[in-house]
Amino acid sequence: MTKKLLLLLLLAAIGVTTAQATIRRVGFIATVERIDGFDFTTFQAAHDASVNGDTIQLYPTTSGSVSYSGTITKRLVVLGPGYFYNVFQTSGSEITNANLQNLAGNIQGVSLTMNLGSAGTILMGLNNLTVNVVNRQEALNNITITRCRNVVVNWDNSGILNKWTISQCYGLSIAQTGPSAGFTSDRTVDSLDIYNCLINGPINLNTSPSGTYVGNRIYNCVLISGTNLSLNNAAFLVQNCIFEIPTSSLSGLTNTRFIRNITTAATASNGINNTAPNTGNIFSQVLNNIFVNYPTMGTNNGVNNSSLDGRFQLRTTATTAINGGLSVLDNTTPVDIGMYGGTTPYILSGIPSIPIFYQLGAASAVTVGSTYTVTFSVRNNN
User: Fold this and answer.
1) What is the 3-state secondary structure (H, E, C) of 193-204?
2) Which terminus has fewer CB within 10 Å in the chain: N or C?
3) CA gap 311, 119 in Å, rounded
4) Residue 33's pLDDT is what?
5) How sure is the predictor about 6, in pLDDT bands with cuts at 50, 70 and 90?
6) CB neighbours of 370 closer than 8 A, spacing ≥ 6?
7) Are the C-beta atoms of 336 and 342 separated by less than 8 Å?
8) What backbone torsions phi and psi does residue 354 show, to the nearest 5 degrees?
């Protein structure tokens, strides 16, 4: 048995555990030769070889950085390795995440266009992710973006967008732009769920010329400097969030309900209040008293006191935030406010929730006798 065949069998075995789906790799570099049908140099080539339900794993280069782009017309799972620092990427001052794979280089950016057939696609563990829906009159539903960094969602002349989920992401902005002249499609956005994210950019919604917003939610998020919620009077529930105001701008809130949020502003200076149906919001809070390291990470002997995303964890003394929220599942169970609260807390470095093989070895390149010993180690990052 050769090492190439051993790797092929392992990939096939992983596929069996994911409902017969195939895992295809893009940019993978190893000591063994590439495997036809499993290894690709571009995202689009891997996509075109895939069928509904397959997984595409994107890898960084051995040095420097690489970018990936393409159009999705199938129901896929697209995975990256996560983001921030491992032992190859640190200059010595950053806090490393031991659960990250120690892959050299990094993924500079990923730009994906969602097209017909992409419903049910999951994007996870990707750095600098841009998701585009451009000039589509048909519905594009059930898209999940999770554990990604610097997510930019562009709904340009988009049609109906139902049941999109954006969760556990570090950095988010959404632009529902248009419409351009002559575009008349229904631009309804229903059941948009944004939760356990750090939001640091604008979320600008606009269903014109026609469309509605029903059942949309933003919960257990942190909204910091640069955030601009322009909700176009959409029906939204905003719950268990932490707002840095006045550097966060809020508008179009007529149909927005604010429940159990924390804000740095006084009651009268922003759209968050406790006038029914709003309730339980807390004002005039100091974020230094809530987060472990904010606004900066701080250093000790030249080493950061926390990671970029770790600094938003709650202090043990943050009594207004700890168990200060209510679960959106039943509206009775106490949960922490902020991105590390609720039932799906933010995961450091956006590590994808898949088993990671971090050790693979064999006693020899070929079989000797009737047995062949293989050693591999797997880490679960759920």
Assistant:
1) EEECCEECCEEE
2) C
3) 35
4) 62
5) very low
6) none
7) yes
8) -135, 155
CA atoms of 350 and 64, how far apart (whole Å): 20
CA distance 54 to 36: 16
Residue 351 has pLDDT above 70, yes or no: yes
132-to-110, 246, 350 alpha-carbon distances in Å: 11, 30, 21
Largest CA distance in the chain: 80
Report how far residue 186's alpha carbon sits from residue 96's, in angstroms, rounded to the nearest whole number.
46
**pLDDT averaged over the chain?**
87
What digits encode the pLDDT tens for the residues 365-379?
555 666 656 554 555
For residue 23, give every residue at least 6 positions away whose Cβ sits within 8 Å of its Cβ, in sequence order, or none.
11, 14, 15, 38, 54, 55, 56, 57
3-state secondary structure at position 123? strand
Residue in 144, 181, 146, 149 with CA at minimum distance from that of residue 161: 144
Nearest 10 degrees: Cα torsion 165, 107, 380, 7: 120
